[in-house]
Amino acid sequence: MNKEEALEIVKPHLTQHRYEHTIGVVDTAIDLAERFNADTHKAMLAAVFHDYAKFRAKEEMQKIILKEDLGEELLEYGSELWHAPVGAYLVESEVGIKDDEILQAIRSHTSGRIGMQLLEKIIFLADYIEPGRHFPGVEEVRETAEENLDEAVKQAIINTITFLMKRNLPVYPETLHTYNEIASQQRRSKS
Q1: Phi and psi dihedrals of 63, rounded to 5?
Q2: What is the pLDDT of residues 173-184, one digit of tens each?
Q3: Residue 42 and residue 102 in contact, taking contact as beta carbons nearer than 8 Å
Q4: Whose CA is closest to 122, among 191, 55, 179, 45?
Q5: How many alpha carbons lie under 13 Å from residue 146 in its C-beta half-sphere?
Q6: Domains, the chain
Q7: 3-state DSSP percent of the chain in helix, strand and coil, to 5
Q8: 21 touches 39 (CB < 8 A)
Q9: Is there a contact between 48 and 10 (Cβ–Cβ < 8 Å)?
Q10: Which of 92, 90, 121, 89 is nearest to 105 (CA)?
Q11: Which tens digit of pLDDT belongs to each residue from 34-80?
């Protein structure tokens, strides 16, 4: 499936604003994939479909999370996290994409996870730094992403955790685990 075909599939599921965001994520993901030697076609597909379920009804997403055993604990955290695992499920079942790397990148793009692979980090970061994003700290993460993917992912997670904590919102444990894993790896590599 090429980029135009993929965008044609996803467009009816997004608002115009989210579609423009998706275009930015696609361009950023391809750039990051080229920079860090990842598969650009897989990066493009994962980026196109990363928000496929974003505007599904919360009730539908809850049912899919429970029925497909996508992590019931997700329901205790903000519904903003739900579209990622639900999206991966729907991209596989409705669109027919079966590639595990692509599906995992969609699944973990909001929260991260322990053991993130290269494509997952690229989609996580592309979603965070695409050119349409404007919030405190994003420019620093963009600059870091020019040189160091792991450090940029870690900075994005720190910013996200700080944002949530300042608003007295819970932090999804997998996000904390992702931060801890990257920070521990960096500390070990400096020893």
Answers
A1: -60, -45
A2: 999 999 999 999
A3: yes
A4: 45
A5: 6
A6: 3-135 (1.10.3210.10)
A7: 70, 0, 30
A8: no
A9: yes
A10: 121
A11: 999 999 999 999 999 999 999 999 999 999 999 999 989 999 988 99
